[in-house]
Design goal:
Layout lengths: L11 E3 H8 L7 E3 L5 E6 L1 H6 L5 E6 L2 E7 L14 H6 L7 E10 L6 E11 L5 E7 L5 E11 L35 E5 L3 E3 L9 H22 L4 E7 L6 E3 L3 E2 L4 E5 L5 H17 L6 E6 L5 H9 L3 E6 L2 E3 L11
Parallel strand pairs: 3-6, 4-13, 15-16, 16-17
Antiparallel strand pairs: 1-7, 2-3, 4-5, 5-9, 6-7, 7-9, 8-9, 8-11, 10-12, 12-13, 12-14, 14-15, 17-18
Length: 336
């Protein structure tokens, strides 16, 4: 649409300017517009931290750049009530809307008016549109929030790395210097909760890649439930590698048995070779160091690929008739 051309990648806007031109609310983090076919999405660390969550703008997984954005709802569990902001974001494709992502970054000089950097055009990941996460509720308990997974549809701006101010009398930065990419300065490794995957209806026919991602997500969910049903603690690694601009996310890590799994939704040669490379790469940086690594598949691969996996010292687990063949593996496992 013609109004989309007026968004300038990397520009800093005030909220009032955005509402006047493109619509949406003046307050909500998720702001569907009645004026244009957009959903304006605002991420603000200052606000998120008050409610026990933070959005992550610099992630990368097997399929490319990824943003984790926490849904609307500051009290109690978040839901997808029809007509709610969360519902509209989840169904943005069905409604013909484009997601426009903005990051709060600094204030207009001499005022409390916040500036919002336009990061680009996004859509929900078709394979894993959102997952659920438990966060503190402020009263000593936990509440469930929805974390949307956003994928860029084209060029995007780098998230702001420092507050930005502009001279009085201007409502946005007409010209600003190019900012240095956020580059990780050291290697880091931390265990985080794996997402509980969910799927939303797909308007257009899913591609083979999307189908594989859905299949991988469902497989990961089933195997995680399997591990937890046997009393195993399950996490995943978030790895920061010096020199990269975003953290890497692994698939499942069985903390109890110290086994790192890389899941794939296909059993073809390219998928197997990719999984082998990922496991060797992740294992070098993961702390605590996995004692075993394994590939998780939805079905048995052919004999030559099984030989390939075994030849490099990697275990294989695959699903067959509702059971996971090749499990348990690793140190200290118990047989049923």
């Amino acid at each position: 649409m013609t109004e989309d051309k007026e968004f300038e990648l990397g520009r800093y806007y005030t909220r009032a300017e955005l509402v006047a031109t493109w619509g949406g609310s003046k307050q909500s983090g998720i702001a569907p517009s009645a004026k244009t076919k957009n959903v304006l999405v605002y991420t603000d660390p200052e606000v998120g931290e008050k409610h026990g969550y933070h959005d992550t703008l610099n992630l990368r997984d097997d399929y490319g750049p990824l943003v984790w954005y926490t849904g609307a709802g500051d009290d109690g569990d978040q839901h997808f009530a029809k007509g709610s902001d969360n519902y509209r974001l989840l169904h943005h494709k069905e409604q013909g809307r484009t997601i426009r992502l903005f990051q709060a970054a600094g204030r207009v000089k001499g005022t409390d008016t916040k500036l919002h950097k336009y990061l680009g055009e996004y859509e929900l990941d078709e394979g894993r549109p959102y997952f659920e996460r438990l966060i503190p509720d402020g009263d000593g308990g936990k509440r469930t929030v929805m974390v949307f997974q956003l994928r860029p549809l084209g060029p995007v701006a780098d998230p702001a790395v420092e507050p930005v101010v502009i001279p009085p009398g201007q409502v946005y930065l007409d010209a600003h210097p190019e900012r240095e990419l956020r580059v990780l300065r050291e290697n880091t490794s931390r265990l985080v909760d794996p997402e509980r995957n969910a799927a939303a209806p797909i308007v257009r026919k899913p591609t083979g890649a999307v189908s594989a991602r859905r299949r991988e997500a469902d497989l990961t969910d089933r195997f995680r439930a399997h591990l937890e049903s046997h009393g195993n603690e399950v996490k995943r690694f978030e790895l920061g590698i010096e020199g990269l601009t975003s953290e890497l996310l692994t698939d499942l890590f069985d903390v109890t048995n110290k086994v790192l799994y890389e899941a794939k939704g296909r059993t073809d040669r390219n998928s197997i070779r990719l999984a082998i490379g990922q496991l060797f790469d992740y294992r070098r940086h993961a702390v605590p160091k996995p004692e075993s690594v394994a590939i998780l598949l939805p079905e048995a691969p052919n004999e030559d690929l099984r030989d390939l996996i075994a030849s490099v010292g990697i275990s294989l687990v695959y699903e067959e008739n509702g059971k996971f063949i090749g499990w348990p593996i690793g140190a200290g496992v118990r047989e049923d």
